[in-house]
Design brief:
This protein has 124 residues and is mainly beta. It has strands spanning 4-7, 10-13, 18-24, 34-39, 46-51, 58-60, 68-73, 78-83, 92-99, 111-114, 118-123.
Length: 124
Amino acid sequence: QVQLVESGGGLVQAGGSLRLSCADSGRTFSGSGMGWFRQAPGKEREFVATINWSGVSTYYANSVKGRFTISRDNAKNTVYLQMNSLKPEDTAVYYCGRARDRGSSWTTYEYAYWGQGTQVTVSS
C-alpha cells in the first residue's frame, strides 16, 4: 500500500517562501511521475506542478510558473515544492499525488494515490 505524507505547510506573509515535502512509502516511487495540486475553499482541486520519474521533465500551471519549483529525490522517496514570492491567492490545501505512469501528468484522473494535504495560508 502506498502512503503519501505531505509536510511543510503553514502561515506566511505575502512575498515569503515555503518548501513542501511529500514522502512516499511505496517501493516503486522512482518509477512514477509525481505532482502537486491545490484546493481552495469552494473550488475544485487544480493542477500546480508535475515531474516525471527521472526529474528531467517538469511542468507548471501558468499561475505559479517562475515562482514555484518541483523537484524529487528518488533516494529519499520524496518530492518537493519550493514556493517563492507567495501571494494570497496561493492560499489552499496542497496535495501531492503519485501518477499512474512514469511521465508528467496534469489531471487528477492520472493519479492513483494522494496524500492527506497540507494547509498553506498566505496573508496580505
